[in-house]
Amino acid sequence: MKKEPIRMCTGCGARKTKADFIRIVKSPEKNIFVDETGKKAGRGAYICKKRECFTKAQKAKRLERVFKCKIEPEVCSYIELILTNIENGS
């Protein structure tokens, strides 16, 4: 039986299996994007599949601390759109 990796939400601090999160990645080329496969190269941060967790992480600037850079508003808007689609079942 294979052991599921446990990760922590950057927004709310909940600990769950890796499959319960979306992964946001800062690639070696300094691009920040949503990693839908969970296997792309780069520094990763995990967020619950809820917009409120992303909002908490944004307000506390936790993602900026994790990635050690400013996150552009377009990237934040895109992440919010993905989370809205997940919450609505799209």
Oligomer: single chain
Secondary structure tally: strands? 5
Taking pLDDT < 50 over at least 5 consecutive residues as the criterion, the unreliable ranges are none
What is the H-and-E element order? EEEEEHHH
The number of helical segments is 3
Radius of gyration: 13 Å
* Tertiary shape: globular
Describe this structure in words.
By secondary structure, the chain is an alpha+beta fold. Helices cover 33% and strands 24% of the residues. It has a three-stranded antiparallel sheet with strand order 4-3-5. A two-stranded antiparallel ribbon has the order 1-2. β3 and β4 (32-35) form a beta hairpin. The longest helix has 15 residues, at 73-87. The relative contact order is 0.20.
